[in-house]
Amino acid sequence: MYFILTRLAIAVVLCKASTSEEITFKNVTVEWVSDTGGNTTVVTSNSLKNDVPSGEEMSVNINGEVPILYERSVSDIENLKSLVLSGVDLEEIKPGAFVNLPVLQILILSKNKLTELKSDTFRDLNVSTIDLSQNSITTLQPETFKNINIRHLTLSNNQIVEFPSGVFENVTLGSLHLYNTLLKTIAPKALATTSLSSLVLSENKLEEIDPEAFDMPELTSLSLDFNSIKHLRAGDSKNLPQLNTLDLVANKLEEVPEGVFNNSKITHLKLNYNKISTIASKAFEDMSKISVLHFDHNNLTQWDNNWLGGTSNPDYVMAGFNQFSEIPDEAFKNYPKLYSIDLQGNKIMKISPKAFHKLERVVNFSLRDNEIDSWGPDWLVGVSIGTIDLSGNKLKCIDGDLDDIFKNNDFVQLEDNPWDTECAEKIKDFTTRKEKAPKTRSYVPN
């Protein structure tokens, strides 16, 4: 992938040599390849510029050992578009190592032994990608990134504990990957001036969403999954006005209060795989843009029919694998038209006769693997459902005319229920007829 943008590729193979002060590239084998030819040379040099041809844009890949990048060791190369220094045992980058690289787009420094990034290390670069993943970085000094434009920066798989203020100085940054580190703290406004649109902080040690730290006016996507966040507070997302995707999967949340997400622009909200036992009635109030809501795999016991008031019909409500035992009256009144409701894997035994009132159209509705032992003949009157899944429950029979009961459903899944002997044939005949019937309701609702 590192060679896609290149017209000329150069592979640099480094071999161990005797120590010589400030010689970055020792006994370097340079193999360069282009559309028109290639060549191989062996050099020892303190500057890559002396060892690569000018002319066509090129990529350089270095293999071997490069313990230190000295000042101006990679500088004044007008045609260098990609540089890969991955797995070369790099321990230190001197400030000023990268200077005057006008067409550089990709800089890969992954899988090395860097422990610290010093001030001015990447000053004045204008690049698409810098990859510093899989090092041993613990410290980021102020102005490590100064006067620089980066589309994508990766600092993942390091040992960073704190992200201090001042690391970015006059920086334009599109996306930052900082997952699987030891990060516990982000200083207030440390990322506020970077123009970030995407931030991945998965698999860290964060315990809260501090509005002062998460002050990012242009951020649209935030991944905080697999952290240690225990509490959500009203106002946590107040400084994220453009946020549309928030991932809080697999944290330690127990409650979702009112005032965290209200009136936000969030379209995709993931709260699954937590320990949530309580969601306030108005926790999702006036989320006018919400499309996908996950709160499956939690400890919820009571369905609140006031959830999602003031919304404009979300597409997916995923609430499976909780502890719900009952579906109350008008359970889905605030979102009458949607693509999917998933309540599988709960402990639902009781369904109110008016549970589906005000629900109009759903493409997929899953109630599989619950404890439902009866089904009312008029529960689905006026509701159009493409597929309703009642498999894996405790139904022994469904009284009444099944063709009439499920007349507004294209598919009815009834397998893996303990049907009475006298009812089993009725169910079998119905499902056979239903499979052959014309299908008209498998659509995305308007």
TrEMBL record:
Keywords: Leucine-rich repeat, Repeat, Signal. SUPFAM superfamilies: L domain-like. One of its GO terms (cellular component) is extracellular space. Residues 1-20 form the signal peptide. This is Leucine-rich repeat-containing protein 15. The lineage of its organism: Eukaryota, Metazoa, Ecdysozoa, Arthropoda, Hexapoda.
